[in-house]
Amino acid sequence: MGSGTSSAMFLCFLHFFWIIVNPARAYSMKHCISIKMNLNCRQRNLQTIPSDIPPVIKSLDVSMNNISKIKKSDFKNISVINCMNLSSNTISNVEDGAFLHLVALHGLDLGHNKLTTISEHMFQGLANMTRLQLHNNLISFIACSSFQNLSGLQIVNLTNNKLHHLSNVQPLVHLPNLRELYISNNNLHYFESRELSNGSIGLKVLDVSTNPLERFSITANVLPNLQNLNLSYCGQNGSMEWDVADTVFLSKISTLDLSGVQMSVDNMSMVLQNFTNTHSSLASLALSNLWRKSTEKVGIIANIACHIPTLSVLRLGNDCISVVSEKLLQSCSRTKKLDLSDNIISDLSESSFRSLKGLKYIRLDNNSLSSVPNATRNLSTLKILDLSLNSIDNLNCLDFANLTGLLKLFLYSNKIQKLDSCVFQDLKSLKMLSLGGNSILTLNGAFTNCLQNLESLDLRQNKLSSIKQEDFKQLKSLKSLILFDNQISHMDNGAFDGLFNLETLKLSSNKINAKAVKDTVFRELSHLRYLSISSNRIEYEHDSELRLPPFVNLSSLRYLAIFSQNPQGMFNIPSNFLEGLQSLETIRAGNLNIKLLHPNTFRYTPELKYLDISDNKFTSLTAELFHPIPKLMVIYLSKCQLESLDFLINANLFQVNYLQISYNQLTALNETLLNSLPSLTYMDMRNNSFSCNCSNLWFMRWITNNSQTQVVDAHQYLCKYPFSQKGTLLLDFDTHSCSVDTGLFYFISTTSLVLLTLLGSLIYRLLRWQLIYSYHLFLAYLYDNKQKNRRAAYQYDAFVSYNTHDEPWVLRDLLPELEVRQGWRLCLHHRDFQPGKPIMENITDAIYGSHKTICVISRHYLESEWCSREIQVASFRLFDEQKDVLILVFLEEIPDQQLSPYHRMRRLLKKRTYLSWPRAGEHTGVFWQKLQLALETRNSSDEENPLLTGVERL
Ligand SMILES: *[C@@H]1O[C@H](CO)[C@@H](O)[C@H](O)[C@H]1NC(C)=O
Ligand SMILES: *[C@@H]1O[C@H](CO)[C@@H](O)[C@H](O)[C@H]1NC(C)=O
Ligand SMILES: *[C@@H]1O[C@H](CO)[C@@H](O)[C@H](O)[C@H]1NC(C)=O
Ligand SMILES: *[C@@H]1O[C@H](CO)[C@@H](O)[C@H](O)[C@H]1NC(C)=O
Ligand SMILES: *[C@@H]1O[C@H](CO)[C@@H](O)[C@H](O)[C@H]1NC(C)=O
């Protein structure tokens, strides 16, 4: 019954670990993990109860922390909670009313703390509580009214405290529903029924064990319904006094543990004789560890015990027996279960159990037997025989003779080396055979002609090296075959043939290589649901298709484990390795040294829900890999050296709710990725290379603000980048530094304005000419564009662009020579521009209406006119029409460095031809000739330009 309670408690907290499949809605909390409304804050170095506990949860586990005080305000926001585990802290103080609002609480564990007293109002409000664990504290005082309103309380564990008097538990005993009370290992010297005053009607289980009781005295019927009494290891100095006034007082007791009680043989005999009367209900009696190694005394006691008419279970364990003779148990004819485990029995006479006519269950485990005793043969009523943990090295054909009714046989952890075909021949009903932990080398047909009803065969941890076709063939009922941790390297074709009902096959930790994993081995296992072949030597050189994929006939398989625990691994998974596994839901393929997965890998497993490929060497995976498995819910990808999860974006993983990606090199996750996992509720990203900067602002905010996905332990994540943030906490990153406030904005804009102005004037000073020039260039571009659309016929042969300073030369030298002597028609602005027309239009008309444009270049010209509209329009036309329109005439020598601001000029000079007006005193004839030639040239490209030759450079 005790174990029932603890298992209920265990189940209650088991919720916490139920994280593998389908974790539901979760919350983001600083210290806890929440799964399915169960909050786990275990081992977090907490000093206080976390303040961000959501109001509605099923359970809370804050065990293994450093909490020393429970404050009244700690749980005031929690309205609905069933279980609470506060154990293994240092709680010494619980404020009155701390649990006041927890009306739905059923289980509270305060074990392993430092409580010394239970005060009056400590448990106020816990009206619905049924289980209370207070074990391993320092409690010596319990206030009278402290349990007054806890009328629902059924189970209280006060084991390992400092109670000195039985009267301390009086406030508990009176509770109407109390069923189980554990006060083991306190400091009780007396058990006097009067200390319980009126006693307890409901109490069924009472554990008083390991107290230094000098006296066990019941003088009134205070525990009328007590069924289970544990007095083991009570008493001091061999002298516990037993004083039960009336056998009726203990008449309901069915289970009694008197192991290790300090009592003389005589006193013990008297105690047991008190149970031989007609009122007694005693069915199960433990008498272990009474008088070490004194088989004689044990024999006397056993004999009396076996005269108890109702007794069916007898335990005589813990080092007290070495030899069992017929005499020891001669009166135990009614015993159904005999527990002789944990002794040092090496010898059992053939007739030891002869008088136990109805024996169903014998435990002889953990003794010193070197062979299967003769005594256990021919027990036709026997159902369970446990011989495990002995030194049996050999099984003979008659060892299990006539055990035709036996259902379970345990032989694990012995020294059996070989089997024979005859060994199990009589075990016609056997359903379960456990032979693990021996040294069996070969099966020698031990399973060939018997065990038709065997459902479970456990051969783990032996030394089998091969599986032959005949080995298991006749085990038609077999559902589970466990062969892990052997040395199997070879499996015959059809090694498992005939096992049509087999559902579970465990072959991990053997020496099976890729050649041994073949379709012919598994061909008849169409009902197999669970297969593990992890940690073997299955390796593939590449991932190309296998000619004969191994699992094609395993159409019912739900679970496949191929992960490895050795560093070797599979290296590659052939693209059709999983072919045939149409029902597969879980695959565990971690630590296989795999770098790549072929996109077809999961093509054959459309039902896959749970995928573990963690601890591999992927640097990247593809979205295509996941397309055939849309039902995927759980992904394990930790320790995979991943720098990005972008491959999940188009993977269509709409059902995934659990993502384990710890120990990678991820810097952050982006919005697109997380949006592509719409069902995600649980994500573990511990130990990645988080980058704490503003570009991951969205991610950091998402971790804390999103209401769907719980990022496990996010508050412990450390930054790795940038260097300045290394080692700081990701969620401590100051996100405000990323958003600019208005003050800062104004500051920045004024500063920039000032800087720009400064820079602008600086630029203007340095690059004035280039700026003006660029401005005109732009205007010219606009006009040129406009001009393109309306091509006038040529009015002039040339338009002359010049500076007013050079007008004398134009009028005196140029005009007479070109117009009068050579007969060209020139356009001069002072003479030919139409008055009233905008100047720009006049210029463009002139340029586009002339075949050529002559630029008269001097220093003045460069300073004022070069940047003028004329030259720009002309040069645009030049590029636009690809015609040689520009004729450059240099009136004076201009050194290169003075030309430097005029990039365009320099470019033109490099590409174009130009003429220089001869220096004073030189002959002008050649100049005019060349000019004439230039004016005559029409539409010629550079290469053909005759002026290219015979022109001097500046
Ligand atoms: C009571 O506490 C003891 C000591 O920790 C433990 O061993 C035992 O299992 C507990 N019993 C129940 C019913 O919880
Ligand atoms: C708790 O107990 C009260 C009566 O004491 C009952 O009305 C209520 O329904 C119980 N609540 C739960 C959650 O069991
Ligand atoms: C218990 O047994 C002893 C010895 O057999 C006997 O003297 C005593 O009266 C018995 N007690 C009761 C309550 O029957
Ligand atoms: C088992 O019984 C046989 C006779 O049936 C006997 O020869 C043998 O010595 C016995 N073995 C042991 C270990 O008692
Ligand atoms: C098995 O039982 C039969 C009939 O009861 C008996 O003849 C035979 O000797 C027994 N076998 C052994 C090995 O004791």
UniProtKB/TrEMBL annotation:
Keywords: Glycoprotein, Immunity, Inflammatory response, Innate immunity, Leucine-rich repeat, Membrane, Receptor, Repeat, Signal, Transmembrane, Transmembrane helix
Topological category with respect to the lipid bilayer: Single-pass type I membrane protein
Keyword Repeat: yes
SMART domains: LRR_SD22, LRR_TYP, LRRCT, TIR
InterPro entries: Cys-rich_flank_reg_C (IPR000483), Leu-rich_rpt (IPR001611), Leu-rich_rpt_typical-subtyp (IPR003591), LRR_dom_sf (IPR032675), TIR_dom (IPR000157), Toll_tir_struct_dom_sf (IPR035897)
One GO process term, biological-process aspect: innate immune response
Short name of any one Pfam family annotated for the protein: TIR
Localisation: Membrane
Domain annotation TIR: ranges: 794-935
GO molecular function term, any single one: signaling receptor activity
Source taxon at top rank: Eukaryota
GO cellular component, one term: plasma membrane
Signal peptide feature range: 1-26
Major subcellular site: membrane
Stated family: Belongs to the Toll-like receptor family.
Stated name of the protein: TIR domain-containing protein
